[in-house]
């Protein structure tokens, strides 16, 4: 029994080490968990063009990540990153007690960050397939809304502009067999947005938000 298990394990290792390289026309579909972790720096809030001494920060969020790849040859491919909508809590920092809301949850914002990248796979002749990528991201914000407490202070009409920016990534596939693999990637996306809002009915609130997240994905992939 032990010899049979050992033989099976050896055959698995051999089949993985000899896993076929990608080739022109291959299509890969992946699904799993994607985490968007925004830049930890704070964004200053301006009121009527003047620094209010208040600032904003945005927390991270994980969602279902989807990934589609088309190979032009064994090295070059086009990748489309998609996901279910990400929702982030926005925290207000008010160290000088302008509104007495330091550390309070100010709002929630939801966004979709579709990204198209050209990726280059390095040939290793093993089951480990590392790659690098560079692409373009377009992020759309929607369902922006203040919490009830900020609304009672006269804050309303929160809006965030869409963002267009570059995306860079490193990643790797670990092939389980000729069809299935595990994928892991880390990417940086340039996401900058201007947030505007009303204070007491006047359109005087503004903050330049540099989301600039680190995006980490762990996915299961299948090659067609």
From TrEMBL:
Domain of life of the source: Bacteria
Signal peptide region: 1-19
Alphabetized UniProt keyword annotations: Signal
SUPFAM superfamilies assigned to the protein according to its UniProt record, in alphabetical order: OMPA-like
Organism annotation: Thalassotalea profundi
The name under which this protein is listed is Outer membrane protein OmpW
**Entry-linked PANTHER family:** OUTER MEMBRANE PROTEIN W, PTHR36920
Task: Tell me which Pfam families the record gives.
Answer: OmpW (PF03922)
């Amino acid at each position: 029994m032990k010899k049979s298990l050992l033989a099976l394990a050896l055959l698995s290792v051999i089949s993985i080490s000899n896993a076929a390289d990608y080739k022109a026309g291959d299509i890969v579909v992946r699904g799993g968990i994607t985490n968007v972790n925004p830049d930890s720096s704070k964004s200053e809030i301006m009121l009527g063009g003047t620094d209010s001494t208040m600032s904003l920060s945005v927390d991270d969020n994980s969602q279902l990540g989807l990934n589609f790849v088309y190979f032009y040859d064994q090295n070059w491919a086009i990748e489309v990153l998609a996901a279910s909508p990400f929702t982030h809590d926005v925290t207000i920092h008010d160290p000088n007690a302008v509104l007495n809301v330091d550390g309070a949850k100010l709002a929630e914002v939801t966004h979709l960050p579709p990204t198209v990248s050209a990726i280059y796979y390095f040939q290793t002749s093993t089951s480990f397939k590392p790659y690098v990528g560079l692409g373009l991201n377009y992020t759309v914000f929607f369902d922006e809304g203040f919490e009830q407490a900020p609304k009672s202070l006269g804050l309303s009409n929160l809006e965030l502009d869409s963002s267009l920016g570059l995306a860079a990534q490193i990643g790797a596939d670990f092939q389980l067999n000729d069809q299935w693999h595990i994928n892991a990637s880390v990417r940086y996306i340039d996401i900058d947005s201007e947030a505007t809002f009303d204070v007491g009915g006047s359109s005087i609130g503004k903050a330049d938000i540099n989301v600039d997240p680190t995006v980490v994905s762990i996915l299961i992939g299948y090659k067609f």
